[in-house]
Design a protein that fits this description.
The protein contains 13 helices and 17 strands. By secondary structure, the chain is of the alpha/beta class. It has 2 domains: about 170 residues, Aspartate Aminotransferase, domain 1, CATH 3.90.1150; about 260 residues, Type I PLP-dependent aspartate aminotransferase-like (Major domain) (Aspartate Aminotransferase, domain 2, 3-Layer(aba) Sandwich). A hairpin with a 2-residue loop joins strand 13 and strand 14. It is globular. The chain starts with 5 loop residues before the first strand and ends with a helix. About 50% of the residues are buried. The protein binds pyridoxal-5'-phosphate. The site of pyridoxal-5'-phosphate has 15 residues, from helix 5.
Length: about 450
């Protein structure tokens, strides 16, 4: 990636200076004013990680209303993987918005939807014939993957995992593990969802992947019955749950068992997909071929789009008219996704994610060596996290995690937290971030870890 100091902003707009620049305290006075308006106009249930109000973003920075320029280690939660305002995305969407904004693919269709389906069929793992269907959000796509699996197997039950996150709709709340803030008071939840243990090397004593998979399979055998099971739904690297990378062999053993038992293996790659982990999909690292793969977030550079792609005979199980939605595969979002795919291929972003992993892990491991409160540095590609614990233990320290995140924010670095215990700091820089900002963001973290008690 070039050490460019600027990237072009919105089409024809001013170039966005690639620097961290603080001209007020964070958040600044105009942001604070807007945030007061938010409190009296927007539902309290919608939380805010960092209340600086954005006016522009691109490359590796977010520019706020007060004139501050922050380094982005969040990508809007793993969405702007190709960058915010990536040139091909901006052009492709601008051209489409002038042509037409919507017809509904179920009324009068358009080529872009078909082309994107062809691209997803080509790019996802597995060489057999595939089909794709498009939706708007990750949760909506996960719900539809389950519908498809039930339609194909004629079985009701679904297995999800400890620490799983699959969304906030009724069925996906049931699949999601964590009560607060996702589920508390929002039940009753959809039925026929069962939970199995996952492989979590930092917390399961380093159990092997095959053994961990056996424990999950035992839940099916003891509590569900294979004749009742439609699908396993799993994130190949858990996202909100704490960037948990399962032990080698875990995913492959589950996938093999599914194949042998006519159970649909659904990979939820909503957060891990589209070059984020240093491969196009996280299952590629393990050579695992899911029956269905769910994508969203990084797929369309910030426009709302999601997809279910998989084996043709499974995706084609639901009857004609059984799948769809008013906006699914909206022309603008499709135009963005086609440009994202082109950008990943043309700009070598898979390699870029790998080089970001190398830089981040090297630096974070050095910070860990000086700071025993970092229990583990883990992740893949540009999806890297540190799990924070009380010194010399594995006891989670969510308080420290909050303080570190707040200190980073105050220094103009956007970072997010995650984890069932709220003790994981996660880093998801856009792959368009220039090296000098990646390094400066890590410098900020280094300092913040030394200064925060
Ligand atoms: C974000 C996320 C979802 C939900 O996606 P939305 O677009 O927010 O509905 C589902 N699964 C995973 C793994 C996610 O990270």
């Amino acid at each position: 990636m070039p050490e460019s100091d600027t990237v072009t902003g919105h089409s024809g707009g001013p170039a966005l200076s690639q620097e961290r620049r603080l001209v007020t305290e964070i958040p600044g006075p105009i942001s604070r004013e807007l945030h007061a308006r938010k409190a009296s106009a927007v539902a309290r249930g919608v939380g805010t990680v960092l209340p600086v109000y954005t006016v522009a973003a691109g490359g590796g920075v977010v520019l706020d209303v007060d004139g501050n320029s922050l380094i982005d280690f969040g990508s809007g939660i793993a969405v702007t993987t190709v960058g915010n305002s990536a040139p091909r995305v901006v052009e492709s969407v601008a051209e489409q918005v002038r042509a037409f904004t919507h017809t509904c693919f179920m009324v009068t269709p358009y080529e872009g939807y078909v082309r994107l389906a062809e691209e997803l069929n080509r790019l996802t793992p597995g060489s057999g014939e595939k089909r794709t269907v498009l939706f708007n959000s990750g949760a909506e796509a996960v719900e539809n993957a389950v519908k498809i699996a039930r339609s194909w197997t004629r079985r009701p039950a679904v297995i999800a995992f400890d620490h799983a996150y699959h969304g906030r709709t009724n069925l996906t709340m049931a699949l999601t593990a964590k009560n607060m803030p996702y589920k508390n008071g929002f039940g009753p939840f959809a039925g026929e969802v069962y939970r199995a243990p996952v492989s979590y090397p930092f917390r399961d004593g380093g159990m092997g992947g095959v053994e961990a998979a056996r424990q999950a399979i035992e839940v099916v055998e003891q509590q569900v019955g294979v004749d009742n099971l439609a699908a396993f739904v799993i994130e190949p690297i858990q996202g909100e749950g704490g960037f948990i990378v399962p032990a080698p062999g875990f995913l492959a053993t589950l996938a093999e068992w599914c194949r042998a038992n006519g159970v649909v293996f659904i990979a939820d790659e909503v957060q891990t997909g589209f070059a984020r982990t240093g491969d196009l999909f996280a299952v590629d690292h393990e050579g695992v071929v899911p029956d269905l793969i769910v994508t969203a977030k990084g797929i369309a550079g910030g426009l709302p789009l999601s997809a279910v792609t998989g084996r043709a005979e499974i995706v084609d199980a639901p009857h004609g008219g059984g799948l769809g939605g008013t906006y699914g595969g909206n022309p603008l979002a499709v135009a963005a996704a086609l440009a994202v795919i082109e950008t990943i291929e043309a700009d070598g972003l898979i390699d870029r994610a790998r080089s970001i992993e190398k830089t981040m892990k090297q630096r974070l491991t050095a910070i860990q060596q000086a700071d025993p409160r970092i229990g583990e540095v883990r992740g893949r590609g540009a999806m890297i996290a540190v799990e924070l614990v009380e010194r010399g233990t594995t006891t989670p320290d969510p308080g420290l995690t909050k303080r570190i995140a707040a200190a980073a924010h105050a220094q103009g670095l956007v970072v997010l937290t995650c984890g069932t215990y709220g003790n994981v700091l996660r880093f998801l820089p856009p792959l368009s971030i220039p090296d000098h900002l990646l390094t400066e963001g890590l410098d900020v973290l280094d300092r913040v870890f030394r200064e925060t008690r």
